[in-house]
Here is the input.
Amino acid sequence: MSLRTKLKKVLPSISITEQEALDAGDVWLEGSIYQGKPDFDALRDVPAAKLSAEEQAFLDGPVKELLSMIDDSEIQNGVHLPDYILDFLKKERFFSLIIPKSFGGLEFSPYANSTIVATIATKSSAVAVTVMVPNSLGPGELLLHFGTKEQQDHYLPRLANGRDIPCFALTSPEAGSDAGGIPDIGVVKRGQFNGEEVLGLEITWDKRYITLAPIATVLGLAFKVVDPDGLLGGKENLGITCALIPKDHPGVELGNRHDPMGIRFYNGTTRGEKVFVPMDFIIGGQKNIGRGWQMLVSCLGAGRGISLPALGVSSSQVAFKGASEYAAVREQFGLAIGQFEGIQEKLADIAGKTYLQEAMRVLTTEGLGMGLKPSVVTAIAKYHMTEIGRNVLDSAMDIQAGKAIQNGPQNTLASGYVAQPIAITVEGANILTRNLMIFGQGVMRCHPYLQSMVESIHSEDKNADKEFNSILRKTVGYSVANSLRAFRLGVLPFTAGAKSSLPEVRAYEKAAHKLSAKLAVYADFSLLVLGGKLKQAEMLSARLGDVMSFLYAAMASIKYYEQKVASSEREQAAPYFHYATRFALQSAEEALHKFLDNFPASGTRKFMRFITMNYSMKMPKISDDLIRELATQAQMDTAFKAQITHLVNPIEGDGHYINEQAYKAKMACLDLLAKVKKALRAKTIKPGVRFAETLDNALVASVINEEEYAKLIDYNKKREKAIRVDEFDFDMNLLDDNAKPVNQLKSVVNE
Here is the structure.
């Protein structure tokens, strides 16, 4: 019995849905990371993302106008988005960011799409999600790539101008992450449509978590098709299929709403019982029966790589801007709280991770802008950027403390804090994304021979043994080369290559090569020793996925620093860059050690540790000095800080504006504040109970003049407003139309 035949009995075959997922998308930078040789040349050749004049005009015009219209506190205390917001979104074509101009759309780049969604999310998660969904996975993109000309000509102009609102229904109560388990069935039958008997599908479905479903006018639907009577002349089970069904089609149920954590975007259910639709309703027509999953996974780039990461980045930038301004303005024990090391540790972490988030956002959308659909990279972006967004928000909540937990127009964190878990559950829960998808897809897509080997093992071709042996020889050679390279870099670490022109970057580039070489060895031995069991060893494979992910993040950090930071601003940016890159490299190294510590085969574990010389943590550390340096830099009003918080656009009167005004007022009078504090220390003046009284004393003592006094008083008023929280008069005696008590919220402070 040949080795191939033995392996065929042991290894499980790849399911149709798994194979279609593997076949969809492109291999990009993650391929070189997996293979132990991060391709920094390809990284540096990626065209830099930038907005076109038209895209910038849209941000400066309709987006800015939308921000001025949004009162997120009002939205969250209401039932749904106000009609004037929805009408504006339709009028200004916010639902057509990805639709070509030939169909009346805006046809913006992935980078612009991401920037628009993220900018809106800094003001309102509910509005951002409403804009996000039609421009990510849904009818629009499916029609663009797979629709018939008639479908495109009919629907795309209507989707572009808002006459039609789309939703897409995939998730069922019985099948969420397991797309192959969809219980919704379409039976091939003949039936009546427009007074004629035609061939079509009788569909029964029950879907949930469908964003925009309550207001959708056209329903995208995923279901399985069966042909028990052989009307199509082939097999009975034809596979997952996607159709587009008007809301007013007989039998379609749309309307019931969910309540996703009180975030007021439209999310709900759709059902149908034996609803007959003609074959023309299938996206792409009858020929696309059974191609639904392939269609869906090939279009995941927008949702995974653009929209959901954009929500994570927006959370980080809001958190960083608000926390740094609050830390500079809020004083305790006579000092700005940003001078306390406990706050500095949190603030530095927020600042470094915000930089890393923006770097990953830019690089990922640059790849998508090249026309690539890198399924592993977009999974990396979705998981890590939403998780980092959650982590950063937690730290910002700690810094702002009592201010952060009081709802109201002035709270800039509350909506994002509540909404962040929503992004984490979309397009597959993050546990699934990390534990199964990133390395699970990566190992098959990025290994140069593995997918071909698996195919040859399960092949029925008469030359399959010969083909398998040829691939096996190549695989062994590849693994030996990986081991030799890792051993060389372990024994002679100075031989790692680096091509950056910036000396502060070269050490990190070398570090990435060393970690990547170890990853390649561990991945090879995992496949050799665990084989098909690696699929069930989720904690082990997740750690290898983390290594891939954090090395991708480190590459993003390097590219951003080299290409997006002006040379005149490198000194400002350096602490952000060093913290972010060290965080990514340290995280990758920790994942490697956890993988080794828990590898089940003791002998193999010891051999892997020896051949990679992996006995201790060797990556550059985040020192206390770096934390202090970054925390100080994060509280300064610099051009680079503005660059990595550019998504936050304060609108006069909103919480962002109130915080920023106090912060900028303080930055403008630091020298005057120092003069007053010096006089207090010298006991030239007495401190007042309130700071305004201290300023009065300073004026009387001629420590400051009238003009300086006015400037400090102006700052103090803005400071008091910034550290204050919203208060409300609750009248519990009002009744609604159903005689139920309601809360009448009326601000008594910040109207």
